[in-house]
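Input record (one chain):
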Amino acid sequence: MQLHTATLDDIDEVLELHSKYQIDSIAPEDKKDGFVTTAFTKEQLTQLINEEQGLFIARLHGKVVAYIMCGSWKFCSIWPIFTQMIQDLPNLHYLGHTITTENSYQYGPVCIDKSVRGSGVLEALFDFAREKMSKRYPILVTFINKINQRSFNAHSRLGLEVITEFSFNNNNYYELVYDTSKKLRMK
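The corresponding structure, as predicted from the sequence alone:
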């Protein structure tokens, strides 16, 4: 398996993988095993790659089998759920600091092809992305839909901690954090 910071040449494969597991297009039988709620475009991924260097991929036998998106709050603020999260950041404290748009970034979505789930791809790619992003931000922040138990369990095993819970658009979410200076620790 090869881990990379994505380039523009990777966008089409990332979008193909994303489409398989996005909530609006996922096969009904696959939904119980996890899904991605955020939709994005080729233009948004181009911006994420060019301006943020925030798209990380895993390739196996030359094919993209996983991705993790990481972006500044400025980049993510085009989606309404992130705008709500940004407004609540001043109420959250972690590592002895108030969480801000300057000391934290949005982790996710994350997408792992079902053919490689449980094989260590998430762990390897998470730590790869964490290490790259730790050079800019000490705190990772993310959210997981409460009905996406597979994702919640996987990220809890990685060591992410629930800092609060919130509702948006008739859905309930966990908001989680992680200290990016810490190498991956499995629970």
